[in-house]
Specification:
Layout lengths: L6 H11 L6 H7 L11 H22 L5 H12 L1 H11 L9 H5 L6 H18 L2 H18 L1 H5 L2 H11 L6 E8 L6 E7 L7 E5 L2 H16 L3
Antiparallel strand pairs: 1-2, 2-3
Helix pairs in contact: 2-7, 3-4, 3-7, 3-8, 4-11, 5-7, 10-11
């Protein structure tokens, strides 16, 4: 098993995290993988997952008041997914501080995205238990602030425009939109649209109060998938 980090190392890590623990045992637990001990970071990860989702959701809601619920949801998914959290961990050199079992350490566990991302969530949970929600939210928000600010440009242009630009830049055909269904009474209709995009065979779908909104949502779904390509 990897030895626990020294007090000096923990002090360095806390500077990178942006929070000084009153109970350093919570930080040590957040760094402990299940391969190393029965007292590990899984329960803290459970708490931290909710904290991170809450903080990012509130930040997106406040920063972009005109963006639709569907687009906010997709953006939140981008920020809270394991690969993005792993990037935060890499910025902290978090892998150097993880407490791993021998097998996990030898197999490269300290560089594995899933382990790094889970540890970031566990640290968020540990901060909450060590302080309060307001202070935790401030610290966690600081981890995402630069990326949230950089995302502003993406919100400035509507999804259909962004999708068209993405496809044109790669010399793909323009997207094809079609209305799939219209449900509900005349005064409260829900429109469902499909967006066919190369190189995907399956169309992307979106819903909205108007055909245009439904098409924008479908374009957003396509962009979210293309962003992972």
């Amino acid at each position: 098993m990897t030895r626990a980090p020294s007090k000096i190392s923990l002090a360095e890590l806390q500077q990178r995290i942006g929070y000084q623990f009153h109970q350093t045992d919570l930080l040590l637990q957040a760094l402990t993988h299940r391969s190393a001990s029965k007292t590990n970071n899984e329960r803290l990860e459970f708490v931290g997952d909710s904290v991170v989702n809450h903080v990012v959701a509130v930040a997106l809601f406040s920063k972009y008041p005109k963006v639709s619920e569907g687009e906010l949801s997709r953006r939140r998914t981008h920020f809270v997914r394991g690969s993005f959290l792993a990037q935060i961990a890499i910025e902290w050199s978090l892998g150097d501080y993880l407490i791993l079992g021998t097998g996990e350490r030898k197999s490269g566990g300290r560089h594995r995205e899933s382990i790094l991302g889970d540890a970031v969530e566990a640290i968020a949970g540990a901060i909450l238990l060590d302080s309060n929600l307001q202070q935790t939210a401030e610290v966690v928000l600081s981890w995402f602030q630069t990326a949230l600010d950089q995302a502003a440009e993406g919100f400035d242009r509507d999804p259909k425009t962004k999708l068209q630009e993405w496809l044109q830049a790669r010399q793909y055909p323009l997207p094809e939109y079609r209305l799939v269904s219209t449900t509900g009474p005349d005064h409260d209709q829900t429109f469902r649209a499909a967006c066919k995009v190369k190189p995907f065979d399956t169309p992307f779908h979106g819903e909205g109060r108007s055909r245009r909104e439904a098409e924008q949502e479908a374009a957003s779904a396509a962009l979210a998938e293309l962003g992972d390509e």
